[in-house]
Amino acid sequence: MSNTMTFALAKGQLVSFPIKKAPLTIACVSGRLWATIDGSALDYIVGQGENISLTRRGTVVVQALYPASFHVATAASAQGAQINDRRAGDLPGSKPGERFVHAA
Questions:
Q1: What CATH number belongs to 3-76?
Q2: Using CA of residue 8, residue 13, residue 16, residue 22, what is the dihedral sign?
């Protein structure tokens, strides 16, 4: 049985929640998102109509690069989600669906 939650974020707003049971799918309905899993070197840029499937347990952080809405679906819902109103700039030169590694 799959659970789905929907989020709407202003530009720069963050939401984080634990991935208790993988995989977890993030589907961008509108806008553009940046996502990562705490402790992972991979980042994801997800544009409108795109989705990613995260297979690693941990805490996922999602930030709206532009005003955005998205669905999160998993066998165990993203209970415990916390929205953080901190603002941050866009990632220059990034493209929708692009994956890249944090600079050390």
A1: 2.60.120.10
A2: positive
